[in-house]
Amino acid sequence: MPSNQFIPDIVIGRLPQYLRTLQRMESENRIITSSQELAERIGISAAQIRKDLSLFGEFGKQGTGYDIHFLIEKLRSILKVDRIWDIVVVGAGDIGSALARYQGFTNRGFRVAMLFDKDPAKIGTKIGNFVVQDSRYLSDAVQRANIKIGMIAVPSSEAQNVADQLVRGGVRAILNYAPISINVPPVVHVQYIDPVIHLQRMTYYLD
User: Fold this and answer.
1) CB 3.0-4.6 Å disulfide test: which of 16, 156, 169, 200 passes with 143?
2) Domains and CATH numbers, the chain
3) Tell me: the pLDDT tens digits for 82-107?
4) How far apart are the C-alpha atoms of 20 and 165, rounded to whole Å?
């Protein structure tokens, strides 16, 4: 794919769906698939799938279809989930605690690395494998660890302040669970729903 080619965000948003479906096929010991079969499983037209994939190169052969493992590796590379991205979670309430304990991130390109809260009663306590850290030190800690992805799991009244701290620390992708829109610089990408799908969508834009 030419480095200067513009890819519509709506296309990037579909790639994780293709990846997830292909990974499911691979777990079924499948080797080859077609755009038609992918279309039937995902609910997107075969023509749209072929058009989306063609923006990134030629991955299939007419009359043969797609090599599932090869296409998985290519999509992982395109979405930049052929590596592990560390994540900081802010908010150690019900959602934040569940995220800290969730085991499904690592095999899809992500790893929770830090957990923060401002509640003195929670700071210093252990949730899963993490000791809750004081959110007063959020920006500095994130910057030192070179973390680029943050999850906001705080009340809506605190979400903008947390977003500002994350941005100051160098975070460039935010998944916001708070029921409010947050304002961030144009270089920061924000998603508000479905953690894994939208994390994979955001990592496309990260260096």
Assistant:
1) 169
2) 9-78 (1.10.10.10), 85-203 (3.40.50.720)
3) 999 999 999 999 999 999 999 888 88
4) 32
